[in-house]
Request: fold
Amino acid sequence: MKPIIICGYSNTGKTSFIERLIKSIKNKGKTVAVIKHIDISHKPKLDDSDTSRYLKAGAELSIGFGGDYLLRYEKNTEKKAKENNSMRYRIHNLLMSANKDFVIIEGLKSYNGPIPKIVFVNSKEEIDSLADELTIGYSGQNAEDFNISIPYIPFNADDETLYKFIDKNSIPFVADLDCAECGYPTCRDFAKALMRKEVTLKNCIPMSADVKLTVNNKPVFLKGFVRDILRDIVIGFAKNLHDYEEGDIKISIKRPGLD
Reply:
């Protein structure tokens, strides 16, 4: 899975660019999801479908399905956001749920996690205010090639050019645990090294370790001491069973009451 952030100022063409980017990815036979960050001060406009009306009436979650579509409306309060610790934590969970070849994230100007971004601007000054070490390019319907170190992506670039740029410059999502097991102090630092091709995804220890955990089919990455505890408990328990033999161990737990 390769996530990419598209962020920038209003009226720079982000939405139409994302629409064309989706098309270019789909034309290559790849899967793609889009996550849009909505500022907490902005109340999203819900259409007048029954599904959205149930949410307005007080339901915490309202899902409509049929044919090729599933629509999910869910309330999320600022209190919940604080309980979930940080924006990085929330984005991490959304990415694990999406689990597509590419995930486009619109917004998040100040995101400090390990995801590359493209900034949308009107001027070089706006680039300076948004760009950071993980900025892989800039564009905008009124932008031009400002002859700087950050690559310029022509706003009207064709589908093939868009796909090649995204595929070449985006990187796989890493565990985002800041565990430092890879030798870098943060996952953001590891992502920079990944972009420079100094490391590969195998160097992300939680993602390549021999202890894997999934919950509701979503991978849950574990730090070293947690992996060690889980491994020792499971192996120690299994060794006391009558039919135990050496080999890989897999456990599936169905929680009661979740049918």
Observations:
- Strands lie at 2-8, 32-36, 61-66, 69-74, 102-106, 117-120, 135-139, 214-215, 218-219.
- The two ends are 29 Å apart (CA to CA).
